[in-house]
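Appendix C. Worked example: Lipoprotein
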Amino acid sequence: MRAAIGVLPLLMLVGCGEVPQPFRHDGPNLALAPTAARAVLVQRIDESPRATALADAVVRRLLEAEIPATTRSGGGGGWTLAPAAEESAGSIRLRWRLLRADGESASDLIQTLPAEAWKAPSPRLIDGLAAELVGKTIPVLSGTPPAAPAPPPPQVPTVRVVPPSDLPGDGNTALGGALRRLLEKSGFKPVEGDAPADFVVRSQATVTPAPGGQETLTMVWIVGGADGAEVGRVSQQGAVPKGRLAGSWGSLAADIAAGGVEGIDELLRAAKRK
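Step 2, the predicted output written as structure tokens:
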């Protein structure tokens, strides 16, 4: 339940100009912040200026989140943030215990930073520590569990395509490149050179004479795992005009790769499920 904050009536003085306000204070009063059932008393680690600055920053962040908070001893409500600092191996561990009114610990939060940085912490560091602490404390104060961390993105299987080496014309380069592009569109990540990969695709190609001024191209795609064991094979065969393969393959490479990638994709996904 949000605490109600009383507001003093404002006296309007007409025709007298601006009223001097020598004791005006902009921003929340960190020592006299309102209290409520869920108000938080933020204790200091020690009496040093850095500890005071950190406690004040935590209170400020809590107030911005509409949670009553104070650094005034005895002015808290249902909660206390009790800090302690431990130094070891060049680092400082700031331990924050969030205590209920009965002294029972509700959560235990640890912040670690270099000891050198804690000697003279910058305002940015102070505010960052406060923001992190309050962000992790709010779910406990509000009684709602913290959001579950987002699941890691699914791992994309990697595939190394060994370029063909026995095709005429520019077939070796054109067909290998077309196959890599289509595998990437299918959700796999091609890797270059001899980089390790989850799967390796090799090929065997033969070109034989065919009747009617044609040639028959036979492609066999061999899919293997990272350990070198063969997963399966995909075969393609088709006739092309004689001499068509001797020059630039152009769209022919894309057509052949599209036919081959259908079977390769099935083999890769089946192997991934095992």
